[in-house]
Amino acid sequence: CENGAKAVAWESTAKTIGADFFAAHSVSDIWQQSDHWIEDQGRVTEPLRYNAATDHYEVVSWADAMREMGAGLAAVPDPNQAEFYTSGRCSNEAAFLFQLFVRLYGTNNFPDCSNMCHEATSVGLPKSIGIGKGTVSLEDFDHADLILSIGHNPGTNHPRMMATLREVSKRGGKIIVFNPLKERSLERFESPQSVVEMATMTATPIASSYYQVKVGGDAAALKGIAKALVALDEAARVSGSERALDHAFIAEHTAGLEDYITDLATTEWADIERSSGLSRTDLEEVALAYSKSKSTICCYGMGVTQHRTGTTNVQQIANLLLLRGNMGRPGAGICPLRGHSNVQGDRTVGITERPMPLLLDNMRDV
Q1: Domains of the chain
Q2: What is the pLDDT of residues 264-291, one digit of tens each?
């Protein structure tokens, strides 16, 4: 894919930039350039200090950089006035040492890339299912007959996922997509590993159905699907046919169904349609497909989490999966798609302002 090729090219480049480059370009000048231009200049190989008077970065030695950082940290009156940022591009080993150093310094201030991309997941999922992580593995996709894809573009952001979605489609599984824009990779995918597809310029269809939800309308769309699903369940109860909800699972593993159904009942379809940008018919179609699925996985990305209603969006996804018992069994569950490759690893080894007591106890014992 394009993004994968760019990432490999930029990270493996032999080009470097140093003092001459930063003398010729002010920070304001660099700010006006595209990310492609900036990456194409090469890799930084030495520490840099920003000079506010000249608006230029200046190269400093490693010894001076360490000395100035140490002096700056020592001068902070309260360690909690300092913040230490890292991201999922960091290895587990480096992240562990980083958090150990910072905690010895005296603070838990660890803003991380996941605060931007998946804080809604970290807050919302524990309240819904007790853990702020996905519940599926790659193997589960082999057993799912329905994939709900909400608010992400795997062709650009998770290219390796395309092969998995392609296999789901080829064996007859359904993939229902919710995204404001029609992304080409979610419509069809030409696998670079398929000689036939590459030679004949053919592609595998990905989305069985594609719904262009209004930006910010995810929670309304999810409530609409749930509302339609509850209506299907009631109709099945009256007719004596197979129920649309997994009542045994709900009774054993969940709480609050009555309040949830009341909330759905008092939410008008007109409000759902206006907020979601989708019709009642659209959402009833999804509910019907979902009711017929034996094992469903819901994948979501930044298009779900980076909203004022991000936490609500995540919890509505969890609610929808819980209604049919699509948690804790093969081929079913929730799949938050991370923005960086090792966000979960960073969090697990201590890059968080809310560390687990067991982690702190073990570090103290060591």
Answers
A1: 1-75 (no CATH), 77-118+340-366 (no CATH), 130-337 (3.40.228.10)
A2: 999 999 999 999 999 999 999 999 999 9
